[in-house]
Amino acid sequence: MKKAFLFLALASIALSSCRTDQPVVEPEVSIETQNSYDDQAALNFLQTHYLDTKGNIKNYVATDTINKKLADLIPAPVTLPSGVIYIKRQGAQPDPGKTIGATDIIRLMSITNSYIAINADGKTSFVSGYPLRNTVNGTGVPEVDPTYFHVKDETLTNATTPEAKQRSYYEIEGFGEALQLFKSFDIPDESNYNLQGVIIVPSRAAFARDPYFNYSNISYRNRSFVFNFQVYKTTAR
Fold this sequence. Notes:
Number of helices: 4
Radius of gyration: 20 Å
Strand content: 25-35%
CATH topology: Chitinase A, domain 3
Oligomer: single chain
Order of helices and strands: HHEEEEEEEEHHEEE
Shape: globular
Number of strands: 11
Structural class: alpha+beta
Largest sheet: 7 strands, antiparallel
């Protein structure tokens, strides 16, 4: 009997451990509260992360005397009226670079994650990180013409549902808005990366609570996105 109880206890612990790897599911709050959480969490993110020598986002610790928090970088992070925050990494921009058009075909090297902003114990932060794309640690070459930047017209035309005929179903609006404030390099896909910036998109400038395309088999409802990226090339469509 004691062995049976021991087995049940161990099984319970194992199941609990597995659950910690699952995305956090929080009770839905009002859209106004969610927007506030997103903004507060983004500001907290700027205080708790830095960029390494290749431009990768890393966790910042209070005892770090070498690296600067994202919030303290020069040039400083910029917040757009939409709530989107962007950071241009100093010394990592193309010169002169090429203007990125709203409908361009881009070649994007990135590490991009989505998060839920929650308030716990009086502190608001991003939790339950889940990848959208990671070409830096994945293929090692840029993603070509991502639909979340610009969806092809034929995709909309051939869609079979009303929501799938809308650009907002595919495109992360806040990402496109901020990316056009950067310029593109003109380098081969095989070039080593040097990430040029960060774009933080609050859920209201992403998919919010609207229908969306299933990019990575997770709910994007109320999720904010953090793009850590470099545009290798842009070409007019």
